[in-house]
């Protein structure tokens, strides 16, 4: 079972015209609880939480208070407008690409937890790394969104059947955070989920901010591969944020186009002039470098 995780984007839109049938986010109830907590905050408290300009704070404050459940929903994969999504170009996916995305692609979210491509969402602003301490009155004893979501995001990734997903909604997540990563990695089989985690392969195309909501809970038996896109500079791999976002989106599109079913297939990725670099890679980190114009050192595929 191959799953791809990606980050959301700050910029979102509402679409009226789309062809897919909407589904409901698996953690819609928990998202609703977050929404209620956010509405109880003042404008200044929200602005501090969002860490944004006055203009963006006003826009998101108005969105927050205008929200009506079930209205103005957009499929999650079409709702985000960041660089990664521009290069992914899901609005021009073929039917087979969209089917692949529905099965394999998941978007991590500070507000919704985890999203499937067809899950109906509203525009929101809530980063996974948002600091809740200054506004704890609205969130009780929870200090961070990592703590709020616990292991529920990972458990959903490992769920294969509707029964598994229903079970996630009826059981509370463990109160664990990224700080527990070492202990969880050594926990072995105890960290497994209702689904057969032995066959799970996770392709990490998310930023560190979002992958931290999954990594601490992964059982040793799970195949986890993070993809790194960079260039060699002074003998070191240098990652440029914008270029990495472009490559992540391009890789998702390429995986859907080629129906990739195993992490080893990622090594054939050659879009945007990237090549897999075997010497710099490991079982858990695949390094892709921009192909040099002239000769090169090292092993490229």
UniProtKB/TrEMBL annotation:
One GO term (biological process): response to hydroperoxide
Protein origin, superkingdom: Bacteria
One Gene Ontology CC term in the entry: cytosol
PANTHER family per UniProt: PEROXIDE STRESS RESISTANCE PROTEIN YAAA, PEROXIDE STRESS RESPONSE PROTEIN YAAA
Family named by the database record: Belongs to the UPF0246 family.
The name this protein goes by in its record: UPF0246 protein FMM80_09570
């Amino acid at each position: 079972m191959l799953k791809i995780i990606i980050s959301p984007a700050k910029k979102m839109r509402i679409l009226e015209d789309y062809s897919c049938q909407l589904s409901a986010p698996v953690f819609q109830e928990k998202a609703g609880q977050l929404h209620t907590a956010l509405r109880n905050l003042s404008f200044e408290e929200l602005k501090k939480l969002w860490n944004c300009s006055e203009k963006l704070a006003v826009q998101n404050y108005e969105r927050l208070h205008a929200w009506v459940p079930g209205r103005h929903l957009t499929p999650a994969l079409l709702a985000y407008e960041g660089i990664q999504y521009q290069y992914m170009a899901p609005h021009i996916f073929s039917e087979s690409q969209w089917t692949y995305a529905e099965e394999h692609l998941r978007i991590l979210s500070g507000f919704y937890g985890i999203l499937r491509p067809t899950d109906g969402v509203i525009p929101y602003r809530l980063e996974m790394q948002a600091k809740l301490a200054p506004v704890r009155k609205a969130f009780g004893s929870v200090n961070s969104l990592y703590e709020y979501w616990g292991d529920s995001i990972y458990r959903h990734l490992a769920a294969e059947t509707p029964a598994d997903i229903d079970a996630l909604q009826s059981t509370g997540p463990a109160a664990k955070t990224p700080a527990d990563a070492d202990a969880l990695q050594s926990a072995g089989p105890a960290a497994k989920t209702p689904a057969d985690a032995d066959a799970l392969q996770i392709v990490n195309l998310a930023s560190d901010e979002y992958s931290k909501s999954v990594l601490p809970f992964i059982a040793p038996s799970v195949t986890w591969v993070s993809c790194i896109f960079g260039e060699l500079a002074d003998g070191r791999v240098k990652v440029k944020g914008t270029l990495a976002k472009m490559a992540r989106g391009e890789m998702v599109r390429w995986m859907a186009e080629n129906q990739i079913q195993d992490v080893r297939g990622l090594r054939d990725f050659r879009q945007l002039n990237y090549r897999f670099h075997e010497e710099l890679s490991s079982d858990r980190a695949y390094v892709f470098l921009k192909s040099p114009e002239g000769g090169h050192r090292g092993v490229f595929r």
